[in-house]
Amino acid sequence: MASRTAVKEHDAAREHDHANCRALGQILDRVGDKWTVMAVGALSRGPLRFNVIMREIGAVSHRMLTLTLRALERDGMVTRTAYATIPPKVEYELTDLGRSLIEPLRVLSGWAVENQPTIETARKHFDEAARHLEGVPA
Amino acid sequence: MASRTAVKEHDAAREHDHANCRALGQILDRVGDKWTVMAVGALSRGPLRFNVIMREIGAVSHRMLTLTLRALERDGMVTRTAYATIPPKVEYELTDLGRSLIEPLRVLSGWAVENQPTIETARKHFDEAARHLEGVPA
DNA sequence: CAGTATCCGATTGGATACTG
DNA sequence: CAGTATCCAATCGGATACTG
User: Fold this and answer.
1) What is the pLDDT of residues B15-51, one digit of tens each?
2) Backbone dihedral region for residue A47 (phi beyond 0: left; psi -120 to 50: alpha; all else: beta)
């Protein structure tokens, strides 16, 4: 019966991994969009106004930044404070939850920076090999 | 001139952060799609055949799994080994590079699991507040 | 079994113009 | 200045059918 128990434990481990993957998948759905990490990165150094974030990111459209910040606010990652001045002024700031995300992202970012050259090389090899399987060697 | 130097260092730090964000954004573009982390998760316990990965993930379509694995192979994250048997048999396995990605992902996954309840609550609050600003209180 | 091709609906995200 | 609404092209991804 020891083997049966081992199998069950193995299955349990797999279930657990699968659950982790789903949780990870869900946050990647949120954080893996085009602008979220840029916005979090900009806000990581302190509260900023809408247009400042926009300039820091550079290529983002007005509409997408609004949607990105709204989503972050909904998830409790940023606070939005509107001052009823003329012209209006709206400040965004990371919450504790938002700040707690920075470290995990930094880990991933470290991996990205460290391995980008390797990936670049792998892609070149792959693409070249693919080209040789088609037209070029003829 | 000390202040000028300080400003320059601050700018340099910002540039650096921005570069990190772009690197991070690029790998999230690759890893943040619908199926990549699931595939990496399945392969994290050893080499697997195409259909086994497919069953482990569950909801993925045949086409998307092919595309996902092809992209991972192109980036040097998995190897693909085809055996010319009948029926054919193709095994996928994480490379060292692919395995090195697991830890960063696990960190993020840990964050996700730990903070999902908080996020869930924040969303409820936000959605309820939004509903009260429209029709409901009338 | 694994891979490819085609089709098509759904989602994404930019451009633009308007509002308070 | 910040936010919203509309429009539209591009991309994504599932279903299906066919091939070696």
Assistant:
1) 888 888 888 999 999 999 999 999 999 999 999 999 9
2) beta
